[in-house]
Amino acid sequence: MKTIVILGKNGMLGKRMFDFFIKNENYKIFSFSKNELDITDFLKVQNTLKKINPDFLINCTAYTKVDEAENNRELAFLINSKSVLNLAKICSELNTKFVHFSTDYVFSGKNKDGYCENNEDLNPLNIYGKSKLKGEKYIQEISEKSNLEYYIIRTSWLFDKIGNNFVNTILKLAKNKKELNIINDQFGSPTYTLDLINFTNYLILKNYSSGIYHFSNSGCISWYNFAKKICEINNINIKINPVSSNFFKTEAKRPKYSYLIDTKTDFTHRVWNDALIENFIS
Ligand SMILES: NC(=O)c1ccc[n+]([C@@H]2O[C@H](COP(=O)([O-])OP(=O)(O)OC[C@H]3O[C@@H](n4cnc5c(N)ncnc54)[C@H](OP(=O)(O)O)[C@@H]3O)[C@@H](O)[C@H]2O)c1
Questions:
Q1: Which of 10, 65, 121, 143 is deepest in the core (most CB within 10 A)?
Q2: CATH code: domain of residue 18
Q3: How would you classify residue 254: left for phi > 0, otherwise alpha for psi between -120 and 50, otherwise beta?
Q4: Could you tell me if residue 67 is inside a domain?
Q5: Within a domain: residue 141?
């Protein structure tokens, strides 16, 4: 039986990750919330992981407040970079495979045709993206110096029934507003957490080699089109106006195009609107 440690079990992805793996009898699962194990407490993390000595560490923690990160640079880098370095070092010492999640925001977003795993346009527009990219680099550095095995899985526009995400925000806003203004000049791929988890499990089961992987549902749309579909599926009759990014003053800049392309696996990426329907009926 293999042992898995899941960090960040109260987050959107972390909660779903726990629910998925706990049902699998082939794995023994240990999971921790931020209160139980703060990843910035390097020594405690090291002692805890040493005691468990897991086969896999699945890190679902992150500082994910994209706008607040602009004024909380140190904390964003502490959680998304330095703590990730510490996790990578511990995994290397323990021979634990490190599964980590990153983001489309590591790219500048200039590439209309999308981004493959080896695309070198790594010029994040915001602190969140910079801190996540630094975390990626640290993992790769440790892997080059040691026997660390890892998956860095970049994903985008996560949605689920639970958690803070665009789908839930639109449903909430639609209850209280007469019309919505939604950005129509940023394009990406919505990703259902459960599909991302199946992809993660697929990498593990098929024993893919260490490296960066891209996972999102297939199809590339604007936030405006995403919002329209969310309302349509839920029979919400509300006027939605397409607006440009300049309409909303946000602290953080966001990439215009952030379509992620998976060139490394033969996993089937289902289209985002099928996954969205499942999110509502499941
Ligand atoms: N959501 C998206 O659209 C999206 C897109 C691309 C990539 N990603 C990546 O996907 C992963 C999962 O994201 P998510 O949406 O599930 O994020 P989330 O819902 O914000 O969950 C992150 C979790 O990390 C925990 N955490 C924060 N600081 C911590 C610390 N110091 N020690 C331990 N735990 C800590 C948070 O706890 P508290 O809530 O108590 O702070 C929260 O439970 C992240 O790596 C994220 O960068 C997400």
A1: 143
A2: 3.40.50.720
A3: beta
A4: yes
A5: yes
| Mutation pick for ligand 1 pocket among 6, 10, 16, 34 (CB with most ligand atoms within 8 Å) | 34
Domain limits for position 85: 2-158+189-214
E strand spans, the chain:
2-7, 27-32, 56-59, 97-103, 150-155, 158-159, 179-183, 187-188, 191-192, 211-214, 221-222, 239-243
- Separation of alpha carbons 123 and 87, rounded Å: 24
16, 43, 61: which to mutate for ligand 1, most atoms within 8 A of CB? 61
Instruction: Determine, yes or no, domain membership for 118.
Output: yes
Encoding tokens for residue 194?
Answer: 């459960």
Q: Which ligand 1 atom is nearest residue 38's CA? A: 32
CA 147 to chain centre: 25
- Residues in Cβ contact with 63 at an 8 Å cutoff, skipping those fewer than 6 apart: 69, 72, 75, 76, 78, 79, 80, 128, 131
Q: Is residue 90 part of a domain?
A: yes
pLDDT, one tens digit for every residue, the chain (282 residues)? 999 999 999 999 999 999 999 999 999 999 999 999 999 999 999 999 999 999 999 999 999 999 999 999 999 999 999 999 999 999 999 999 999 999 999 999 999 999 999 999 999 999 999 999 999 999 999 999 998 999 999 999 999 999 999 999 999 999 989 999 999 999 999 999 999 999 999 999 999 999 999 999 999 999 999 999 999 999 999 999 999 998 888 999 999 999 999 999 999 999 999 999 999 987
User: Ligand 1 pocket by C-beta < 6 Å: which residues?
Assistant: 8, 10-14, 34, 38-40, 60-64, 79, 101, 103, 132, 155-158, 163, 165
